């Protein structure tokens, strides 16, 4: 019997409900495992009406059976939340509700009711109160794997991964550590072998422009190059340090599967310029699979019915790689 996946509805005052509705309406056009939504039933109905979707929504219980997910109605596991309007201004009012959605999904994973989950976008600044934390770090703590989490932004043609994630740029240099580089690349390599049954070809970027620093000590000399040498010695396919400014223009020539950078925007900026919505955010290093669309809450387009659901659809489709 196929296990389903859960979709956490995310920030209620965002484009999340819109992309969920669009993914449900078009579900017959793409292969997928059974899925259901963890969110507030009443609010989803209000948003459905506001966005003029004629789909039916049905309530399911925590002890649901796989047959309960069948049919033409979008199955929703109801989480309590009180909001009278379809969309309101962003605030911390929804924080408790969002955390409860995550707790519910994580419990389903631990109880082996689902393979894993997709979480729709949240406002990290409001949800985590500017603690330099994102969902990646939050769920790794809940999973007992903090420090082992790896952010992998995935596309079949090229994926990227940053060593550091949601920290200020002025802190990045201090966080570049050969032990962390080795650890995270080993996790990525294991993930690819487990999910895709192959060893990826990984490019490791330097930190300084052109991998050069006029200082006697540099991040490349002290941490990155020693890490690359060690990784090669254990049989992982790595290249580098590759100059950051040319890496995205040569990845096809050198058949890189993954570009591993030192900080968030070093790899995510050019990656999104290339692939836009054709990408998903995977957290590897967990005891289960967690995926999310590779975009934010769309604050400027909430309620306008113009959001692109492609990244959520790709997130749902990714679970086709997982045996259940």
Describe the structure.
This protein is an alpha/beta fold. The protein folds into 2 domains: 1-149 and 286-324, Isopropylmalate Dehydrogenase (3-Layer(aba) Sandwich), CATH 3.40.718; 157-276, Isopropylmalate Dehydrogenase. The protein is built from 11 helices and 12 strands. It has helices spanning 16-25, 41-51, 95-110, 124-127, 135-142, 172-175, 178-196, 219-233, 247-250, 264-275, 310-318; strands at 5-8, 35-39, 57-60, 74-78, 116-119, 150-154, 159-162, 202-205, 238-242, 258-261, 280-284, 289-293. An 8-stranded mixed sheet has the order 3-4-2-1-5-12-11-6, with helices on both faces. Strand 1 (5-8), helix 1 and strand 2 (35-39) form a beta-alpha-beta unit. Helix 7 (178-196) packs parallel to helix 8. It is globular and about 65 Å long. The mean pLDDT is 94.
CATH architecture of the largest domain: 3-Layer(aba) Sandwich
Number of strands: 12
Principal-axis shape = globular
What do the pLDDT scores average to?
94
What count of domains describes the coordinates?
2
Q: Can you say what the CATH homologous superfamily of the largest domain is?
A: Isopropylmalate Dehydrogenase
Q: Strand order within the widest sheet?
A: 3-4-2-1-5-12-11-6
Which oligomeric form is depicted?
single chain
């Amino acid at each position: 019997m196929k296990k389903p996946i859960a979709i956490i509805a995310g920030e209620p005052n965002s484009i999340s409900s819109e992309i969920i509705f669009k993914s449900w309406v078009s579900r017959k056009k793409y292969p997928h495992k059974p899925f259901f939504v963890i969110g507030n039933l009443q609010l989803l109905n209000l948003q459905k009406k506001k966005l003029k979707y004629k789909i039916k929504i049905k309530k399911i219980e925590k002890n649901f059976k796989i047959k309960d997910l069948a049919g033409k109605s979008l199955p929703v596991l109801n989480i309590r939340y009180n909001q009278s309007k379809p969309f309101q201004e962003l605030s911390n009012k929804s924080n408790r509700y969002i955390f409860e959605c995550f707790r519910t999904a994580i419990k389903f994973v631990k109880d082996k009711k689902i393979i894993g989950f997709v979480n729709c976008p949240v406002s990290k600044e409001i949800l985590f109160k500017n603690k330099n934390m994102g969902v990646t770090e939050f769920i790794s703590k809940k999973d007992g794997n903090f420090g082992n989490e790896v952010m992998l932004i995935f596309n079949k043609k090229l994926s990227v991964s940053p060593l550091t994630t949601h920290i200020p740029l002025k802190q990045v240099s201090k966080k570049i550590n050969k032990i962390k580089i080795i650890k995270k690349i080993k996790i990525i390599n294991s993930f690819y072998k487990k999910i895709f049954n192959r060893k990826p070809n990984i490019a490791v970027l330097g930190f300084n422009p052109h991998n050069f620093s006029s200082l006697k000590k540099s991040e490349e000399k002290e941490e990155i190059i020693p890490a690359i040498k060690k990784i090669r010695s254990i049989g992982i396919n790595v290249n580098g340090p590759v100059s950051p400014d040319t890496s995205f223009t040569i990845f096809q020539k050198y058949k890189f599967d993954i570009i591993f950078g030192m900080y968030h925007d070093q790899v995510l900026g050019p990656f999104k310029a290339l692939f836009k919505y054709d990408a998903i955010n995977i957290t590897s290093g967990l005891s289960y699979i967690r995926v999310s669309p590779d975009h934010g809450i769309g604050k400027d387009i909430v309620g306008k019915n113009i959001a692109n659901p492609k990244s959520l659809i790709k997130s749902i489709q990714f679970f086709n790689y997982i045996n259940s």
